[in-house]
Specification:
The chain is an alpha/beta fold. It has two domains: 1-39, no CATH class; 41-228, P-loop containing nucleotide triphosphate hydrolases (Rossmann fold, 3-Layer(aba) Sandwich). It has five helices and eleven strands. It has helices spanning 72-79, 122-138, 157-168, 185-198, 216-228, and strands at residues 14-16, 19-21, 29-32, 35-38, 42-48, 61-66, 98-103, 107-111, 142-150, 173-178, 204-207. Strand 9, helix 3 and strand 10 (173-178) form a beta-alpha-beta unit. The longest helix has 17 residues, at 122-138. The termini are far apart. The model is unreliable at 1-36 (pLDDT under 50). Bound molecules: guanosine-5'-diphosphate (GDP) and magnesium ion. Residues 72-73, 90, 114 line the site of magnesium ion.
Length: 230
Amino acid sequence: MLAGIYAHLRGFFFNFGKRSFEFSTDRVCNVSKGTFKIMSKVEFILSATNKDHYPKTSLPEVALFGRSNSGKSSFVNAFFNRKKLAFVSNTPGKTQSINFFKAEDKYVLVDLPGYGFAQVSKKLIRNWSQMVEEYIAERESLVGALLIMDIRRDWSVDENLIFNWCVENGMPLVVLLNKSDKLSRSQQERRVEVLKAQSSPEIIFFRISALKRMGVQEVKEFIFKEWINA
Ligand SMILES: Nc1nc2c(ncn2[C@@H]2O[C@H](COP(=O)(O)OP(=O)(O)O)[C@@H](O)[C@H]2O)c(=O)[nH]1
Ligand SMILES: [Mg+2]
């Protein structure tokens, strides 16, 4: 039977119907209905609020931006196939920090603090922009940035600010249009056109659903192919 093949695949996780077997969580695979997907090995490195605390690694880094409630935490969890990895609260008023996650021992996914709380003070907004801008400008190992948005929201001055930081620092930006499950396929396509027109023709858009874990694997493959192994 299928279960017999697990023994020599150290670190693999198989899902057979409702039963699952986990081994060292090194690398995770999913076998269900004939599909076979490789998930991520992940390790939380640390949280930092300024450059003195960034981890001393030489691995390439991919930054993740997102408005609060866009599904950034859900995306991090989907990305690493975990339930509660992105545990750091984004509650307004709480100290925000930059969270570093090592992926596949090959690169680091950097979860930047969320932006766009309606009720936060000017001081918190200033803290956010200083922290994030410092990271973008100072971090030499940064190879690309992901910006996660609710597909139903328009491009705003906040997204434009992030886009401009990326342009100034020569950083490629990819936009992940999350919550695509809320729209029909044709509505999604229409939203991509609208957002392209509102932003810049240079930007690549992915339609994803962190909730349904759709499109996440494609994002990973893109990162690997274009930014890590390039
Ligand atoms: N329908 C749908 N809801 C989502 C999706 N991703 C996140 N959400 C929901 O959006 C809300 C905010 O998600 P969260 O990950 O906490 O967002 P964050 O504030 O950006 O970290 C939660 O209620 C999630 O369940 C998605 O792809 N589809
Ligand atoms: Mg969050």
